[in-house]
Amino acid sequence: MGVRAISQEAFDDLVRENVEDLGMEPSEALEDALHTLKLQGVDLSGIITCVPGESSIKDNPVIACLDRLKEFDSVSIDGPLREEDLDEISSLFVKLKELCCSQQDSGNAAIATKHGAVDLTCSLCSKIKIAPGSNRNRIVVPCLKALAVLIHDIQSTEAFRKCTGPSIVVGLLSNSISDSDSLDAGFAVVAAASTGNEVVKQSFMELKIDELILQVLNRESKTTVRALYDAICVLLTPDDNRVVASQVYGYARTFAKLGIATALTEALQAGIGSDSLVSASIALKSIAVNDEICKSIAEIGGIDTLLRCIDDSGEQGNNTAAKTCCSLLSKLAGSDSNKSTIVEKRGLDKLIKLAQRFSDDPLVIQEVMLIISIICLRSPDHAAKAIEAGAGDLAVQAMKRFPVAAQMQRNACNMIRNMAVRNAENRSILLANGIEKLIRTAKANNELCRAAATDALRDLGLDNYNN
């Protein structure tokens, strides 16, 4: 069902009628209007809830900021923004962003959007694009940063789409290829606008945002454009509940074919010391959507790089890098040929060593267990090597130590199942180590892993697995 909405004018009229027609006190009139509208299911986000006459809407700092920007927008309608206006416009966008990011006034972004901020900012952005190059940089970053904050829900992403926002932003990005700050601010807008909106994603793809992304990844500058990686992930995430079939799977294949997967894999080679390692790993995982892409990443050294980063993250105690690299490796391990590659490169030993180094962190351990369970799937030989590397001991120790870590317990059950199902020797080893009791305890205490625990008990050859 669609959410009912109300305009600022209609809200003010309702409060005014309560005062003038029903004789209510101003504060009572406001409270009654709010209560009535909420009972009717009206969305009040973006509405300035004040008593008309006591305080003007124009007194609101967000509205005051927008009104001043509208003046500049109307003055510059016939050409580029004037040199003398740029400093004030820049300051206004900085102020608008701060207001919309304020924790004390969390509804300011909705207020701004309700009063046309997205359309206004896009209009000014289009004039920045045609302003003289020497003047543009001091305004383009504040403008784009404000726009990224203003776009916060489906209504604002639709407003962005309808006012040709994607075309405007891609134009700005294309003209800022050497400026890292402008690129970061611009790709933050791409990420915000594409979130939950399949049509906006499509618009960016039609504007060849993928070619622009590759161009930025391949440039000589070593400065990390962090929002670029966020934009990749959002563009490749099927998060619009309004569409039946998302196109993002095809976009991922397009990204890989173009060379973005290769560029990201090469970026990982900088290793644990790179400030883009985590972001690039997450972005690459979003592209690795099929066997062909996973194999291609391995062929250019992706698995070697990840195993080295896993080793280094363990040595340096960097659990964030450890989790992220393991997560990407688990995705690549979905390819059967990559499973063998990981085993051949002593990946199982490296993973068990990592889990030992982070023995107090169930989040790292559960990622290790996930990879091992994938490697052992339909492969009794790999399962035997996993037991030899210490995966059985890992399961016993971790399940004892973290009984309420539900996701880790679930991953442990899946790993045990895959190590046992086609390997009778493994079943005997695991049962002898007391794994049955641990699985039954996990099944009783953690609803999340009940199905996985039942499957593990069954594949261990136990008759009463449903008990």
Please give a quick description of this structure.
Helices cover 71% and strands 1% of the residues. By secondary structure, the chain is mostly helical.
Describe the structure.
The chain is an all-alpha fold and 467 residues long. Helix 9 (165-174) packs antiparallel against helix 10 and helix 12 (209-217) runs parallel beside helix 15. It is 71% helix and 1% strand. The model has no long low-confidence stretch (mean pLDDT 91). It contains 28 helices and two strands.
**Largest beta-sheet details:** 2 strands, parallel
Strand content: under 5%
- Average pLDDT number: 91
Instruction: Assign a percent range to the helix content.
Output: over 70%
Query: In what order do the strands lie side by side in the largest sheet?
Result: 1-2
Task: Count up the helices.
Answer: 28
**SSE series:** EHHEHHHHHHHHHHHHHHHHHHHHHHHHHH
Give the CA-based shape.
Answer: globular
The strand count comes to 2
Q: Output the structural class.
A: mainly alpha
- Note poorly predicted spans: none
Distance between the termini: 43 Å
Q: What gyration radius follows from the Cα positions, in whole Å?
A: 28 Å
